[in-house]
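Final report, closing paragraph on structural work. Over the funding period we assembled a curated collection of sequence-structure pairs, and we close with a single example.
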Amino acid sequence: MADIIQIRRDTAANWTSANPTLANGEMGLETDTGKLKVGDGTTAWTSVSYYTLGTVGTAQYADATANFTGDLQKGGSTVPALGDTTANFTGTLQQGGSNVVVDSDIGSTVQAHDANLASFLGAVDLPTADGSADQILKTNGSGTVSFGDAAGGGGATYAPTAGTTVYAEPMQEFFSTQGWGAIQSGGGSSYLMAMRSRDATATNKAKSNRFLFMLPYTHTYTAGQNGNYMNGWATTSFSVVPSTRTVTWNSGGNAWDRFLYHTSYSGNAASTMQWFTIPGSGQTTINGNIVWSGQSSHQFSIGTISFNDNGIYQANNSSVGAGNGLHHSNGHRNTLPIDNSASGYVASTGYNGSNSRASYKIITFQASTAAPSIGSMFQCANTTSTTVESVNMINQPGIYPDSTYNYPVQIWRYNNSSVYSAQALNYQGSVSGEITSGFARHNYTNIAFLLMDGSTPVVMMYDNDWTASRWTSYNSAPTYFDNVNRDWRPKSQMNYGGRGGFVATGVENEFICFDGEAPYYDYFTNQISLKKFKINPTNGQFTDRYYCSLDNSVAGLWTKQNPNYLHSLHGLWGDDGNSSTITHLLVVTKDNVSTRMSHGAQVIDLPAASDWLPYPAN
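Its predicted structure, as stored:
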């Protein structure tokens, strides 16, 4: 029969009350707490510590040099070494103040190790920010993964909601009501200018929802025959609310305004003329062979005009006559802003009538209601003829030059001994010397885009053949890339600096455009379409190339295919003008029939990602 060994035992209260002295090695058990004491033969019960495990084979909790280096905690509170009678931890197990991972965390707060995932992440560079709505992750095949638009399906159909096309008050009727005579437009679409002006809401004025429309006018044939002469320039304005697709033209006494008008010239005062502006500034400048106010014949002229936040004409300056004014081309060309206010400098380029040489004057845009000031006349460096053409500069709002990134805000090409050189303007109004390399010298018609190459702004200029020139400094020759873009181009023609416009979408280095000044047949697909593309900022190559087919079922845009109406395309940046990406498209209609002058504007929803069809890779 086995022996039973029992030790002394009692409740904790009874042990304390009796307070005996245990013999050396004698054990006493508290039956209600489960705690144990071992005597030493001399110390009374209440002065003996409770028994703890020794260090052989296990680590005492209090041993900070063993396994735990901090406090063991439950739910953020330190757990005592003994006495925790809770069967399991119901709070968060922590070590040193940090949660200890448990099985349920894997797949939620932490991820299990996966060798394939680790290998993939080591092989690619992932984007550091979210993309736009409906975009997907795409690889370039060389280790860079970025957000891009999904390829549309073959049956995708663009079905936008389009606001009503709203037309300005008929100009002839307004002039007649005001007693200003019987008039008509002074020229075709190349004489008409629609530009983004300034409003009081947008932080970045290049995103404003106020637009200006300007054109020259002259008397009708019948009025001229009767000796009722009338010449001058007329302007009107409209505002846009993108979310409701609402266009509101100025009305009442502000429906149209006129400036620099006169009643003494029997012909058409307008002739070859071109507009320059910084989008969002509310200011513009014009030059050409014009019968200016107070003059009796066509003379080379420069004029500057300013408007307030409501698009109402405010003031003008002028410089007229040989040696003062300039003349060369038609069209409308933009210059890049130097700040959120859309201020900066513009080179009014043309040839000087006093010496028949390509020349320029620097115009200072203050982004105010004052008319821009006109600088002195300078001849293009080493020019040998009259030919000079300014480059239309396409902006991405929010990018600005400084002393580190001193890229050109404007470039112009001019003749020097039957080849074409360049000069450029910087953000301080300084002009470079003659630049003779970095581009094809047999072309002088160009367009340029402001791009971001990582954290570095660059200007990518293209010529008629869409070969690329990458500018990083206004006073140094660009880098030339003559073998890019042989298989695709965004516009079939570049006349007047890409008339019809390019829209920066807010996605870095991405733009939308028509093929021409209206949604004509695409040069490549033989379909009427919008185009969307990106530009590689290192070499100027067009990438991510898509088209969106337009037919008679597409609201808003089907009416834009009439060649009697030409159009400019603009992006809208939300109701307050502060969205990071465009929310809608705006199409401004310019009536090419001089006796009708039915000018309008319409807000149209953007194509969805699935509406964009990719051009084939080869």
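Residues 115-123 form the longest helix (9 residues). The chain has one domain: 166-614. We thank the funder for supporting this effort.
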